[in-house]
Structures
1.
Amino acid sequence: MMLARAVGRERRFGFVGALRCWGFVVLLAASVTLVEARLVGASLAFTGRDAWVASAALGIAVAATWAGVVRACARTHAQLAPQSSAATPDSLAVFAGSVAGRGTRIAAWSVLVVLPFVAYWPGGGSRAIRLELSHAEAERAGRVAHRVLRCLRGRWRSACARIDIRRCWRRHLSRRSRSTAVSRHVEPGVVLERYAPVDPSFRLIRDARTMRSAETAEHYAFLHSQTLVPPPRVHPVDIDFVSPLKPAEGRKPHVFLLVVDSMRRDYVSAYNPAVTFTPEIGKLAADSFVFQRAFTRYSGTGCRCRRSGRAA
Amino acid sequence: MSVPSIWAGGMIIHVVQQSAFARRNTLMKLVDANDYAQMMTVDNIVEGFIARDAKLQRLGERMGKTEFDACRTLAELERSLETRGPHESPVFFYALPQNVHIATSALRKMPAGERYPGFFDKVAAGVHEVDACVGHFVSYLKRAHLSDDSVIILTSDHGDSLGEEGRWGHAFYLYPECDACAAHRAPAVVAEDARDDGCRRCRVFHRHCAHALRAARLHSARPGVAFRSAAVRRSRR
């Protein structure tokens, strides 16, 4: 209804303008749906019909909201410049102007190009989202963004004059590399924000840190009060786990240690006879030691356990 | 946190980025004491506790952590091994490939008709991918006549919950857990030429790496705290 009121009955754009506006709204809804389903839903293993329905609902809602803003902008434009009301305003320019403040058609169409591009990053949909971009990709993305802005700058000079995206990006990269090289300590908040969209348990940890609702605040305050570990950060005890070592005598074999992240033992044929998809590991295991009772010392990923009371 | 515990050979305090880890880094002590050339993928976990010296050759240098792929890494390792002379120091290789990680698996495109009944398809496909690469690498070692002088340790840090009992998740909700403790069971396959009595049912807490190296006679010193624990008990299968 909102969509229909915002766009369908909008007469200021004229028939062709309204038609174009409709097309833009539909494309915007489709783009948002695509991004939501491919980027967010898939990364949470939320796929299938339900995921597409939910994504489509979100896409329509976003498009409707944007269309509502456009309608308000168009009305304001008519009130502020009644003398020019005879001329039909450019619907796409108004669309872009709703967000950017000053609209161009190229900016409007760029939105539609960029959104699916984000969902289908070069290399295929499977590479659509990363927990972190590699340095080379970050540089490439920065170059692309700079070129796009340079193209737009001719028509959009006043809006872009204050923004030097390339300088901002370089500053971000240098800050990032400096922080990893010097401090070697990843900021927990950054890690949590990065992982939270793809991992429910990280969302749990993030909630514990930020206490975003009364329910979680009460829950974690209780856990915190019950833990035996005091709130200040726990520093590892600086001890030698083994005495100073002497080199071994005799031949020294090559050592190849492959730690496959998140590989469950029941997905390996050496532990589960129902597994038929690891024939090579099975052959290796037949000729190897297979530890039947191997336990990880601590299996969580990146938590501050004292926050949630698990250290107790 | 299981990754630092692998390197330490024992339980470590609950932070991933270990500060001043050198004294607890048992595996690196073994490697250094025996003058190994290191070929490793360096992710954000290990970069804090390895020395960046001439002995270290980074594999997958321009990749982010989530891009570490078993096949590409092992292929790069093969190329590096081929360039080495017969009298150069032995190689210590470490990698943490992400083929099976849920963030990678969830986005994997499954070929039409490829199904793994009874398993989570995308994760099983990731394991299958790793399996093929491991097989290829083992074949290479045999072709290059290196297999008799090699210890291969194939293990994992933990497993994800993949819908069991309605739970999904990577960090807190893990499967399969053991019944009475916070740890969970991990796969550990160790291939080496010295297959004598076969300690196949040792109860090991991810110190099996250090244990395996000790079995390979790399660890000549008296076992320290990490190795003396009663948790390691040898028994025949």
Note: Chain A has a mean pLDDT of 64.
2.
Amino acid sequence: MAEYYFHLSGLSVGYQGTPIIREIEIGIHQGEIVTLIGPNGAGKSTILKTISRQLQPIDGNVVFDRKGITAYTYKELASRMAVVLTERMKPELMTCHDVVATGRYPYTGRLGILTAEDEEKVEEAMRSVHAEELGARDFNAISDGQRQRVLLARAICQEPDVILLDEPTSFLDIRHKLELLAILRSMAKSRKITVIMSLHEIDLAQKVSDKIVCVKGDHIFGYGTPESIFDEKSIRDLYDIDNGYFDPLFGSIELPRVEGDPQVFVLSSCGTGIRVYRSLQKQGIPFAAGILATNDLDYRLARLLAVKTVTAAPFEPVPEQAYAEAGELIRSCQKVILTDFPIASGNAGVRRLIRAAQEEGKLEKTGLQEV
Amino acid sequence: MDHGSAGSFHEENFRRRSRYTLVFVLLAAAFCAIIVLNINTGNVNIPLGRILNIIFARSGSVDEVNIVWKIRLPRILMSAILGGALALSGFLLQTFFENPIAGPFVLGISSGAKMAVAIVMIYFIDMFGKVPSVILILAAFVGAMASTGFILLVSKAVHQMAALLVAGIMIGYICSAITEFAITFAEDSDIVNLHSWSQGSFSGSNWGNVGFAAVVVGITVALTFLLSKPIGAYQLGEHYAQSMGVNVKRFRVALILISSILSATVTAFAGPISFVGIAVPFLMKRALGTSKPLVVIPASFFGGAVFCMFCDLIARMAFAPTELNISTVTSVLGAPVVIYMLIRRQGSR
């Protein structure tokens, strides 16, 4: 067995002796970003609290750098592990600089007075999260995004080997989410800091993490690289999604398709149909799509949203059978929406379909800008 | 850019230090002024020149020397020491409960101490005729700890600030009821001293008591000052404090013991005194513009001393020769501060 930097072995976590999650077995290497995902109340925070020693493990061990976590003194652990918690901090009369400076706690003397070197580290930490301009502001008077950055700076200037973050992106808008995760990513890679966090946004988790831990029920539902974890089925099972779809390639989430006999046939390709699909979806109109090669951008979404999709093999001329199928749909639908896509030798038959639709008075054209 | 921001931090640091210095200079000035004023005024008026003579040369008429040395000086020092202790005890309780209106009086800790002291006084006087200060302080401490222990139990069950305070006030009432009960059935001769004491007063301070209080309070204040680093960490919340290396369990025990000793000492010598513990730390934090324990702890101590000496002056002089209870004055001055504080907090939400 490989020697792990951070190892949860046979760990059971919970409150007052009652385990919530049992038999956790996770090995983490130095400098990795590990993200806990799973439904609300699954126990992600409980795991993080146990790792950070706020809770006693009910069974098993947390081994950190070859030493059981309970063998560390609080002080030793403080110089190696920092946390960013979900609980709202409401310090009285403290500037952001003051809050960040508390990260120097394990390194200052008896009275906690900062040296010039400490001040330097505080400023450096604030620069690394792009918060240098916030220094003199009252911590209670800044926005959520700024607050998370300041708290991250606080953790950074504690100079830890491991940072634990409990849902650091909650309350943040998309720009600040991306910013925060980018900072974590670069920190993990450039300084070899190990990051263990919980996230709600599975799409972001997939993109930022080296390893994913799925927490559900009373056990770890899955653990591995995002590539191995993020297939459509595991995500649907993890969150019990029965009313929508998750696309593991792009990490996008879709509402369930509108079922029923198709009323509209969308004739598109090359991604030009996506907007039409979404618009129909929102209006609650069941639709069919075609003729899409299975490597077409439209196909990835049509297979999730369209009631019926006419497909063709990629890099082959569209076979006659597909044209026939599409012709059938044009006859049965009340409307045909044609988008603006190239028609060339491989799909020349589409011209026939357009004519047929025109003759039945069902054709409606749409450019990219309309819809 | 980097230099700019670094520069602004240094400017900020300088600005802060100047502000701290200013506050401490003002406190020191007020401290001296009130001491002089306090010695100077009373039923017997002694001019400043003669006072200096009496204090530094111990010369003057025997009556005047006795008034200054046996009555006024010990009383002033007592109110300074106990006022400081009270303010600090409030600051520690506010930190502990993460709640700005926690204080020894509001949480019923003073009443618990008062109850224990009253009972001991009544029964000890029966048996021995005189109660040593140590026993009084111990009794007050036991009473204070009993109330505190009860508050801690309640605080585990309810996390709301309001509920906790109501529980404290109720404990206060229960303790007062028991105290009244003991007084009602005590011999009249046993309770001669008790009445004025139980309403809170610095009168009757003597050098023995002052010395004793100075030692107890001096040691606890020094300990508190040494705790200012973990107190600062604790201000960010228990979990962050732990993640910074504070042994939270041990720290909480230390905090509650120290604040109980402080409020017990005050109660043993001067009876329960209200509002100082809430109003003074609040005013000091505002004045300093920070909640850093390293500066707030000494400022609260001196602020409490100045505040109590001032209140005692009013208590003695406002309706001379009739003396007011010290709590009457501290309430009149302190309660509006607390109301203002609550309004401000509401406004900032």
Note: Chain B is about 80% helix and 0% strand.
3.
Amino acid sequence: MESTILFIYILLAVLIGFNILRLVTFGKGLSFPESLAVSFGIGIGFISLQMLLYHFLNIKFDILAMIIPWAVLPLLNNLLFQKNKAPFNNLSKPSQPKDTRFKIFNICLWIGIIFEISYAFFRALIKPIESYDAVAIYAIKSKIFFLAKSIPADYFGAFTNMFPHPDYPLNIPLFQSFIYIALNSLNDQLVKVIFPLYFLAVVVMLYYAIRRFAGHTYSLVFTFVLASIPQFNAYAANAYLDLPLAYYSFASAIFLFEWLRERKSFALLALSAVMAGLAGWTKNEGLLYCVVSVLSMLVFFMFNFEKMKWRYVIGMVLYAAIIFLILAPWMYIRTRYHLVNTDVGAISLNPLHILRQSHRLGPIFYEFQKQIFGPKKWNIFWIAVLAAFALNFKKSFTGTLRYITIFLVFTVSGYIFIYLISPIDINFFLQKTWSRFLVQFLPIAVYWLAIILKKDVKE
Amino acid sequence: MKNNIFKIAFLIWAALWAWFIVRDLLVKDNIETYKVLAGRDLEGKRSYITGDRLYEFLKYCKNNMPEGARYKMTGLEDGSIDKRRAVYYLYPSLELNEPGYVLDAQNYILKKNDGA
């Protein structure tokens, strides 16, 4: 019975996300499976934002009070976009015809992908939330919200500092409490279903993103590669938030890259900005992806300065504004209640301090190579990335691909910067985080690898 | 040439992938854990992952303290996973100053704190 209710409410979240997606994309949309994958994350993000808004308005988390307001969306969509039923011209369908060769190979890839997805669901649902951060940081918060049927009035003032990391955003803890409220029980086993669903959604998005420039088999190969990376699959089951963040940062990045390629549709930019904003609402590291996206756009302006158009500038302003709008309520709370990271504390951005910290580069690169050449977590993925980069260095910085390369370079630089400015013992910090940070941009790296190898591989 | 490199790399990938699955299930003995978990209900699973003895003790404390009671816990290292799980399961009771109860998780004793 609980599983049925859970299924209905997950479906409702997808439906809400689907309608927001239609609004954001001006009534257009993506192909159906990709729409579902994107709608899932949007639905979760906006329901949790709604719950934060209810905190400001002093409204209790009643399931009907949370669902009913969204009913206006389908009506609004029908009213506004009745005539506009066509999906994006350039995004709706894979541009490559479906090849019928390699039938057996394709079947093997399908089996591999389905196995990995099923295994992720199995591992997530066989036990309740139990891993360290999942219990100490996220599950405790969702339990507090569920029992209070609200974010308690004194939560940010007094409560939150009793638990680690009061500054961590509340997207997933709030959605978990939404599920508990829907189930009317604190089932911390069933609630874990959202993590393999994020995994499934990333896999679907990656397949469709690659299908826009490559054939079915080629897309399946890279989809299998992502799904079968042990660390990525493990994070689909442990209720940590690195995989949901990977989902949002990937969705944001692919729609941004698509806009940088076609440079026309504001809808793509809007969708990318929404996903970037939700990345920041999922984990603090998500803010890095917001900054990296904006920086990548600035690089685009630099390369296209002579062909600059006003709509590019307007696009960028809108992009930043959407991110700001999504993050503003949480940033307001963080500032008002002085919520700071219990581990990081007061960070110094003094250039002299950063320079003095440069001795940390040794341990940083040592840990990097440990992850790159250690196949237990990553198979040979990072070795393949390094080899592809070395062999295609020039190509990495040409055409639209250069923005993806630059995006990744900015991302890794951002993490290095965090390691440099943090007062935490560097070896401890690296051991605890780097293999998780890699998960956060892994789908973007797989996408980059698929593009860069495309011309080298005959299908 | 590049096509062949791609094929070889993919074969290595697939071989390692198969080995990692076998390792995860058989060498790490996860199958045994899954078997045990599959035979338990939600409470039983919580108990298994927390440790049956500790979980029983936490349940006993929860049932014998008023809801929202203040407690002090000893016998579990601060910041350890066991302590975090204990705090999670015991909520809405909280570990605060002037505790009404003392939980000795090493000897599994719950005491009323008369000095509070």
Note: The two ends of chain A are 47 Å apart (CA to CA).
4.
Amino acid sequence: MDRRDRHDELLAAFLAGHLDPAAARHWDEHLLECEQCWRAAREDRAGRQAAQALRQPVPPGLADRVAFAVEVAAAASAGAERRPRPAARSRPPGRHGRRRRWRLAGAGILAAGLVVSLTITLFPGEHRTGNVPAAVAAVARYAQGLPARGQHSPSGGSPGAVEVGRPVTVTAGGQRIVLRTWRLGRAEAVVAVSGRPFPMPARARGLPGRGMAWSARLGKLGLYCLNGRTSELVAAPVPAARLAALAARLPLA
Amino acid sequence: MWRAVGADHREFLDATLPYLEVVWQVARQAAWDGQDPEDLVQETYLHAYAGFGSFRGENTRAWLAAICLNVARSQARQRRRRPLEVSGPAVLDALPWTRPDVAQGAADVADAVIAGLDAEEVSRCLRLLPEPQRACIVLMDVAGYTAREAAETLGCPRGTVLARVHRGRRRLAQLLAEAGVSHGSS
């Protein structure tokens, strides 16, 4: 450490109130005499106050989002024999050469692990040969937790539909997904919205005359997906025959 | 205490969610341009969960901040973006500041700087600092860590943290003063 480092360290310690009384008194006297150090002290204070002004409250829903992402990761690791790894990624892989290939390979393995684990963990009654894409599995996982999430809080929506709790944003399978829970009478449904189409699970069926729309059954959950400018996936524990009617009453785009 | 690998995720959330606020403050400043800080927070918690089995639990706050900074750094490296370092003249003289023993009640530098510049400008200037200085400022001034905690997070001596945060603050004030001058003259 050179003399300048030592000087800066001592001045910073003085400004932070870390020096003993004798040393602090020395610096007090020094600052009154030394123009350079006085300026340094003023600049330190200005910089500190400016940086402190950057503090912002945590956005509503971030805690839910984090907790949900960890739950998904935990569910993904529950069926595997290896240690837990992140299951949901916040961004697509990098774009350069070998790293990208490694990341793609890793993401593929991770997504496959998530799909298999969620299929096994969440839908034990289903045939395990079915393929559930990570984004769809994440929505289904969230929909399964409906009774435990949020409190009744009216906040608009289509007539009759009441939003429950707050929206949660999560990234799974490379898709950024916003999840909202709606209550219609005694039924509750999750509406997941993404800028990218939700991939069709292997056992889903396309809906004739509705473009890329599809529906599927996962355990007790019915899934109903509409693909337009955005992709919307409705998940609710209702019979498939009722799902389209339920979706029609929800505030879809 | 060492935890078993694959520890209950509820235990993990109980131990780490109380520090969401500080992780958020760090993530907001550590995220590179175009990266959503909320994504960085989520990624931080997923990395932390993956490593929770081997975490000793000595200082969860410092541990989470270190992960957040590492994730941000790693992702920034993947984008091959580096912090821009700017060297320029100290222009604090351009602002109306004086020593209190010379002119009572004169405008304060910090007040003048902060009053004239919004948070976006402060954030932009903060990004111009060398990464080690920026990390110290983010941890101590934005997230509210002590110098000791910041030193633990960054893996360097406390004195080094103090020196870096001091230089970083000074440079930040100078950059803000520059920005304030240019705004005022346009």
Note: Confidence is low (pLDDT under 50) at residues 81-97, 111-130, 148-158 of chain A.
